[in-house]
Amino acid sequence: MSNGRGTDYDAIVIGGGPSGSSYTITLTKAGYTVLLLERDKFPRFHIGESLLPYTADVLEQLGVLHKLGEEGFPIKLGLELSGSDGFLRRAALGDIGDGYRKWTYQVERADFDKLLLDSAAEQPGATVLEEAKVGRLIQEDGRVTGVEYTYQGETRGASARYVIDASGRAGVLARGLGLRTSDANLKMAAVYKHFGNLDESRNPGYEGDTQIGVHENGWLWAIPIRKDVISVGAMMPASLLREFRPEDLYAQHLKRLPRIEERIEGTNVYRELSGEQNFEYHANTLAGPGFFIIGDAGCFSDPVFSAGVYLALVTGRRAAEETIKCLTGEEREADVAERYGAFFKTGYETYYRLIRAVYDNRAPVMGRFIQQMFRESGIHEKWRVRTLNGDFWTDTNPFVNRLRAEPGWDLFGKYDRLYGCPVHGERQRELQAR
Are 226 and 111 in contact (CB under 8 A)? Predict the structure, then answer.
């Protein structure tokens, strides 16, 4: 489809992770052209392996969910929450009720992300270049109009009606335009390993479940990513990693959660210890003249409840839908930018409040507040499960509204929340009214 402006593409996407792939699939399916520039060569390692049921729904809507089944990824039916103080609670995905999806997948991100990127590359109108590094934004009269990038040793330029920042923590456009704000509320870091030769008969809980274990200095995850491989990570204050050996800290923290330690008994190290600083940041401006910022490029806080891929997919898709309204002249660009920003902030801030509930230490140690929320009477279990599944754009979920009532947990500047589920739409509003 001609863009009518003499530019090379309708959109240039910086980054080929889930958000960039989602944007590309959505825009090209509508008949537009996209140049996607990915810095790395896929497959490449990435953390964040547990998906939400709402994530599976989005993948089905994008036409790629069946490929996950063909890949043989493990099925996830629940989330186990435990504490070093003896707290134990399982959130069964089947308790979501009202006909919603009761399962999802756990994935090995290297293969999952490549699957998505390959799906994007298969779309007519999509040009996907790996090992293509964006070096400079091109701007004209305050509008982003293209990029310069290096590919196969050659510096090239490309122009587009819209440039999309899907570059994750690199934040090529977000940083380039000076839109990123660093946060320092949590100050956490992660160390993790993958273990092979997993035998789920040793699991004290349910096969395929994600385990989240909270203790006084942080939390652990355990996520099976293949039938016989599990990812186990420890989140802790970054200050600890500066004072002690990461390997020693990892072993100490693992011992604080016996259920996770029991699950990996008899395994062998499949991937040696790695670490990541948990950089916290957000952008208050998510769209503007000639650009959209999607996924982790616009906000990152903490991976505790596995919503990163979900938020990446839905913001990528929504940005593409809003781009189409601009390309067709259906709506004013300024109106679209404001609405997209409200959509992005509503979802990310709701998730951020769920994260803050885990880290809150008023009760008096970390983890007690979220435990209390799971024990509170008067809230049906389906609302808790639905929240964990991605019900971030609701205005009727009492569990979410309880999170929103907490003062001091704002993330962005002042904005008007935009309600309406990006996955289930009006169907969800009808069900939530029951």
Answer: no
Are residues 76 and 50 in contact, defined by beta-carbon separation less than 8 angstroms? yes
- Asked if 108 contacts 271 with a C-beta cutoff of 8 angstroms, the reply is no
Give the C-alpha distances (Å, rounded to integers) separating 96 from 192, 225, 307, 314: 30, 23, 17, 20
- The pLDDT score that the predictor gives to residue 277 is 79
- Three-class secondary structure of residue 360 per DSSP: coil
SS3 at position 186 = coil
d(CA 66, CA 369): 38
The amino acid at residue 322 is E
Q: What share of the chain is helix, strand, coil (3-state, %, to 5)?
A: 35, 30, 35
**The amino acid at 409:** W
Residue 105 has pLDDT above 70, yes or no: yes
What are the residues whose beta carbons fall under 8 Å from the beta carbon of 142, sequence distance 6 or more?
Answer: 289
> What are the φ/ψ torsions at residue 88 (nearest 5 degrees)?
-150, 125
The dihedral through the CA atoms of 146, 168, 102, 373 has a sign that is negative
Contact 394, 419 (CB under 8 A): yes
Pick the closest to residue 314 from 280, 285, 350 (CA basis): 350
Q: How many Å apart are CA 240 and CA 247, to the nearest integer? A: 12
Q: Is the whole-model pTM more than 0.85?
A: yes
DSSP symbol at 52: P
- 87 by DSSP, 3-state: which? coil
For the chain, list the domains and their CATH numbers: 9-69+108-183+280-345 (3.50.50.60), 74-92+187-277 (3.30.9.100), 361-432 (no CATH)
Section 274-295 average pLDDT: 93
Residue 419 has pLDDT above 90, yes or no: yes
The more confident residue out of 128 and 373 is 128
The answer to whether 222 and 259 have CB atoms below 8 angstroms apart is no
- HSE value, Cβ hemisphere, 13 Å, CA-based, for 332: 3
* Alpha carbons 90 and 200: distance in angstroms, whole number: 17
